[in-house]
Amino acid sequence: MPRDTELGLTMSREHWVRHARNWAAWARKPDFDAYWEYSPSFFDLVPAPGLRTLEVGCGEGRVARDLIKRGHRVTAVDATAELLRLADEADGVGAYARCDAAALPFATGSFDLVVFYNSLMDIDDMDGAVREAARVLMPGAKMCACVTHPIPDAGRFESHEPSAPFVVHDTYLGPRRWVEIPVERDGLQMEFAGWAYPLEGYFRALENAGFAVEAVREPQGTEDRWRRIPLFLMWRAVKIR
Ligand SMILES: C[S@@+](CC[C@H](N)C(=O)[O-])C[C@H]1O[C@@H](n2cnc3c(N)ncnc32)[C@H](O)[C@@H]1O
After folding, report:
1. Measuring CA to CA, how many Å separate 186 from each of 23, 27, 190?
2. Ligand 1, residues 11, 16, 190: which to mutate, most atoms within 8 A of Cβ?
3. Residue 54 lies in a domain
4. 88 CA from centroid of ligand 1 (Å)
5. SS3 assignment, position 7
């Protein structure tokens, strides 16, 4: 059973509680969302299995399961009880705990890899989550993350045409809360919302927490528009102090 701790609802956590079932259906449909196209680029950044890997913001658990398939000994955490229950049910190998990413219930220096896959931009206290990741990592250990890229977070393509102009209507420098209009595709519905940060937002959080970035990726998509603008930003960082 997942470990559970009492959590109050913040803006982002409330969103995921409301959309947990829709998200689980969305995330689990094979070859459906961007995960299936982009996650191989992310796993190329992930170091070989070491002692203990922590995934923060695991949702219904697909990243944790993929890490386990690659030989990682995984502990996964999320703030949403329903998603954590689904992750635990679908796996049975990893250890699952409910907590806030900015208050991890683990001892200092207990992991040699922390993974955030499309969760840092969902966590209300992003800086706090990065600080906690640094705390629970051993010196010299790695943190790998994928986030929606700050550029598409800041604007929109004007149409679905391959050469559609990309326009920044609001501001690139943030942070700011974004909420997408509800989407429906192949009978599945989802509403996405999160925090948009400029590049400096993420990289200052890493710098302040004692990380040095050793690899950055902006993988190109296969859809025409996403060959021109990156949809995701991925990195691997090492804890240097
Ligand atoms: C887009 S989902 C990503 C799930 C999974 N990593 C994946 O790629 O399938 C974002 C997850 O972050 C979790 N989350 C949001 N705020 C959180 C917080 N403060 N602490 C822990 N998890 C949080 C949500 O519950 C949700 O499961």
Report:
1. 14, 13, 11
2. 16
3. yes
4. 15
5. coil
Residue 2 in any domain: the answer is no
Ligand 1 contacts (CB < 6 A) are: 12-13, 16, 27, 57-59, 62-63, 78-80, 83, 100-101, 117-119, 122-124
Query: Ligand 1 pocket: which of 23, 68, 99, 122 to mutate (most atoms <8 Å of CB)?
Result: 122
- Exposure string of 211-232, with b = 16+ CB inside 10 Å and e = fewer, is beeeeebebebeeebbeeebbb
**Residue range(s) defining the domain that contains residue 50:** 11-239
| Ligand 1: centre distance to CA 167 (Å) | 28
Q: What is the CATH number of the domain that holds 53?
A: 3.40.50.150
Kindly give the residue spans of alpha helices, DSSP state H, lying in 46-189: 62-69, 81-91, 126-136, 150-154
Count structural domains, the chain: 1
pLDDT in tens, the chain (241 residues): 344 445 666 777 788 999 999 999 999 999 999 999 999 999 999 999 999 999 999 999 999 999 999 999 999 999 999 999 999 999 878 899 999 999 999 999 999 999 999 999 999 999 999 999 999 999 999 999 999 999 999 999 999 899 999 999 878 997 788 888 899 999 999 999 999 999 999 999 999 999 999 999 999 999 999 999 999 999 999 999 9
This prediction has a pTM of 0.95
Question: Would you give the DSSP letter of residue 3?
Answer: B
